[in-house]
Known about the structure:
The structure is a homodimer.
Chain A: E1 27-31, H1 36-52, E2 57-60, H2 63-70, H3 75-78, H4 85-99, H5 116-127, H6 131-143, H7 152-161, H8 166-173, H9 176-191, E3 199-202, E4 205-208, H10 213-235
Parallel strand pairs in A: 1-2
Antiparallel strand pairs in A: 1-3, 3-4
Helix pairs in contact in A: 1-10, 2-9, 5-6, 5-8, 5-9
Amino acid sequence: MVRRHQAGFPPADATGMHMADQAGLRVQFLFDFGSPNAYLAAKIIPDVEKRTGVSVEYVPVLLGGIYKLTGNSSPADYLKGIRNKREYMEVETGRFIRRHGITSFRKNPFFPVNTLQLMRGAIAAQAEGLFWPYFHAVYRHMWEEPKKMDDPAVMMAALASSGIDAERIVAKAQDPAIKSRLMQLTEDAVARGAFGSPTFFVNDEMFFGKDQLRDVEEEILAQGRERGAKRAGAAS
Amino acid sequence: MVRRHQAGFPPADATGMHMADQAGLRVQFLFDFGSPNAYLAAKIIPDVEKRTGVSVEYVPVLLGGIYKLTGNSSPADYLKGIRNKREYMEVETGRFIRRHGITSFRKNPFFPVNTLQLMRGAIAAQAEGLFWPYFHAVYRHMWEEPKKMDDPAVMMAALASSGIDAERIVAKAQDPAIKSRLMQLTEDAVARGAFGSPTFFVNDEMFFGKDQLRDVEEEILAQGRERGAKRAGAAS
């Protein structure tokens, strides 16, 4: 199932949510808009989908919630005061950007941005069938033309400038069901093994970090082969 | 330059030290016997050498010294109390072992083992032209038939059982020049950007972690092509 792609991001279907495909393969990308590494990984997902034929499910989570539940913290925090390690992370990120020819990425000078409203907005946008326009718009204003997106006025103006009905999404985001859904997805992620961002699942096999997208792809192909072999066996 | 290989480890030349090859490419593996991830990486290096034609230089460093100089610590320490993250490291290690078909690895129940004497011994073994037998023997008794190798009596007996002239190496390891060489290599590593183990350099490009051996290999091939193109240009 190869689909049309746009500007390095996935195609604009309604929700970003998919169930397992016909082969029984469920591939999930757990993201928080505040994570630059999740942004960079997201740029590559359409290529992985194209090469493997899978459709990746986008799962909003609250990274701050994951950190609180696991006792983990952001690299910016836990690498503070450690010589060379943070500099090396920058080198790795530069290599990833060059390898994949990513030209859109800009550091956000307001990092870290509190993403609670943005992530509730992602769930709301899924519920309203507006996920992809919202997803593209938020990433644009976070990591391409970076703004202080935890300032409500800045956020509303930015979304409006991208043609998003921000009032509608913000209103929906106040729905208790939306709020609790974000918490539930975050708790589920930790229960399944997550501790940071970006996190991928290929069925129950977890992968952490943008550099493991190659492993994600290998796992998709391996699990696909395995299931294919089982089906062939069952049919014979 | 493809060379004979033995049991997943590099061939038995005298020292493990090489200068840049004809193409001007210097590939270095900085290791401490105490690091299981360095052991696992070392098992794969011969394959990388075979595929790329380079000869990797083995550089003994003291991981404890690197941690002291950088303020870094071992994953066993810095992941303490963080949910999921350490478990994931185990998953990753299991994947690496399966991917590369490594059957020899056993966890060392005495981990962490103080490796000061063993690493001085590595420098001494290089000086005495006994590097490879010593290297294979120490790794065997650290990560294949694991022992408490920071107990001097255990170490001497283990090395002797592998046919190593342990007395000669231990005596040489007391030489102040050997001791200061290990410190110098460790300080140089940190000055060049190292913070943990295993660390690789392809000329001055640093790579950290066994999972980046793929990137090391790509970098070797890329730098080799670049230099080849320059030589072709200079000759024309």
